[in-house]
């Protein structure tokens, strides 16, 4: 119920949804670098698969030679050869 | 940049991690705001960088997540200092370098004047020296306001001065007065006009004074041309009184100039052999050091030097000068002058003299050049017949003793 109101309010007021709803924001820079914002935690990290828990979903990034350049509470940057992005 | 400096200053580590749940460890790190970067998976291990303050805090996290850490490499200033703790002289050298730079920056190593046209650099520098402002003095002792004030009072033609100390330089900007500051006062002191040169008078216009010569007269140097003594002659043809006036007039006279120049019959010619020797030198205070190969015996060289003052930045000048020396070898031999060369030389001398005379305001009427050869010398004679203004003002001696007596006498009569 609350979620729905929030969604409605956000779209009515044209507020950015990533801020209001805490949705995950994924921005790619080519295929070698991706920045993921609003994530919760790292579930799995290997050099060919990174699984990240966001608020409502999981983000799975597949590729090879994946490397976390930096990560903070809100933001994470992954470099490497990215092959896929999946939601779970 | 700030992050980079922060990492270097406090130090950071490359850590290898193995264990049960590395992801949990990473999550806890971010929850505890411990900085971890460049994480990569490497076989069964994870490697990452962590700051030293962060590393001190992760002990409980390591226990919770059941991982094992191994430090692979240490970076940054604390480790660098620890590794080089025995190299005391290195540190001392570095510190003394900083000290020297700092001490150097306390003094003035260059004085620059800008905008001076009437007063030369040397004049201004000499004046500054009398004001106790000189090359190599302490910066703190300079009072720019006082210097500006004294420059303005000492040089009345300077209308605006701005002095400032920038780095190790004293920069003085000057604006000079471009119009005349005062109207020249007409000279009214009694004087004679005296001939400064021998000659024959060709024209005479006397505005005030008693002419003593006439057109066509031959005068010698020192003769009085126009006298400023004006005798008042009474009816009985006796001098009653004498007035002294400022004599003035335009007098031109035909004069002659004779010049002789002796030149040796043989000309020394220096021919460059094409061999060049280059060197450098360094000069600091009164010490200088030259890096140059010694010259071979029995050769002669011409040397030219180029000197520049070292400076770190635009305004941080140092009392160190670096110079480049270029030596060119030459061979000299003598040969007699050819006729053409003699003629050219005579022409050139003649031109020089003409120029000098014209600058003095002399008009040239005739110009003769002769080249006379004898056994030991070659003589170039130049004769000029010229016309020039004559008459130099010279203060005259006044006989003032007679005057009061005369007035006394006249009073008695009355």
TrEMBL record, chain A:
Top-level taxon: Bacteria
Protein name: Sporulation protein
Alphabetical list of Pfam families matching this protein: YabP
